[in-house]
Amino acid sequence: MALIRGNYEARDDVSFAGNLTFVGWWDALGVAMPRPIMPVCYVGTFAARPANIIASRPVWKRQLKLLERGDNIVEGHYSERTFAALLLPTLPAHVVKQLQCVSKGVRRCAYTMGYCGTLYGCNNGFNCAA
Question: What are the residue ranges spanned by the domains of the chain?
């Protein structure tokens, strides 16, 4: 029996949100969550080199298993936001430092439901060399 809540459908008795967090999603994938900055995809748009797809093959198998629970489930949304971090090379430390320096801040979850945790703004003209 499928449990239907809103437009979200699961094939088990677990509600859409369940107790799975984004950190829990990364734990289930069996890979370390990129820190302190993680590239993220929204709306399923991304590009990747074939070598990066092949290199992350073990993660795709675990991800597929996690997505078998249903259609339009929270795991699918987490999966979409994971693509960039899995398919891009690790950001070099100097790039992370520059991004942190020029960003105005981080969006808080209470005010930006779909984009919580994203860096925003740009401190134009800010000297990050110091």
Answer: 3-90, 92-130
